[in-house]
Amino acid sequence: MQGDRTIHLPVMTTELVAHLRPARECTYVDATAGAGGHTEAGLRASDPDGRVFCLDADPDAVQRLEQTLQPFRHRALCRPGNFAHVATLAADAGFSDVAGIIFDLGFSSFQIDDSARGFSFQLDGPLDMRYDRSSGPTAADVVARTPQKELADIIFEYGDERQSRRIAREIVDRRSRSPITTTADLAGIVARAHGGRRARIHPAT
Questions:
Q1: At residue 68, what are phi and psi to the nearest 5 degrees?
Q2: How many Cβ atoms sit within 10 Å of the Cβ of residue 20?
Q3: Which of left, alpha, beta for 3 (phi over 0: left; psi -120 to 50: alpha)?
Q4: pTM of the full structure
């Protein structure tokens, strides 16, 4: 660990570079840059003048990126934004004609390891779960306001959870008595909906 930065080891970097084949004088887009491991690999492989536009929905990740990519500051441009708008954001930044785009979907370890983000039930914290904490409803808002049937549909569709109706019923029952505000609160509700049975994998996973 260096300061408040943990070591990040990106996966499949060798395979990504081999497939993308970064080249000099070419421009690329990393639409989900995260901790910047793949971006840095692409910049090194396209040395000395390949350029990368780095995009991430998490403003905290963008700040980390700018520090990580400081040695490449003339060849890397970092901006906050959702990859759904990558075409517009990249074009606005002058990256309209690119040789390749990276999409590495999912969480970064620093997001999961930060209890304040609320992504992991293993660390009790606010039930947030937003990439961009400056906008949109939190997970606590969702479980507080969403009708029971819609909650069940969300849990089933995005969690592949067979007990989705029971979990939604438990959530509605609990919120009628007290707010659900932390990751531990929600994990406990899910566990109770599963009958409190012990399993190798926690039911809230």
A1: -60, -40
A2: 19
A3: left
A4: 0.74
Evaluated on CA atoms 77, 31, 82, 71, the torsion sign reads negative
78: left (phi over 0), alpha (psi -120 to 50) or beta: beta
Beta strands per DSSP E along 69-180:
76-80, 100-102
pLDDT at 2: 37
Q: What is the pLDDT of residues 95-126, one digit of tens each?
A: 989 999 999 888 777 778 878 888 888 889 99
Residue 5 β-bridge partners: 2
Q: Which pair of tokens denotes residue 127?
A: 């039930």
Is residue 76 within 8 Å of 69, Cβ to Cβ?
Answer: yes
Cα-flanking dihedrals φ and ψ of residue 55, to 5°? -125, 140
48 prior amide bond cis, ω within 30: yes
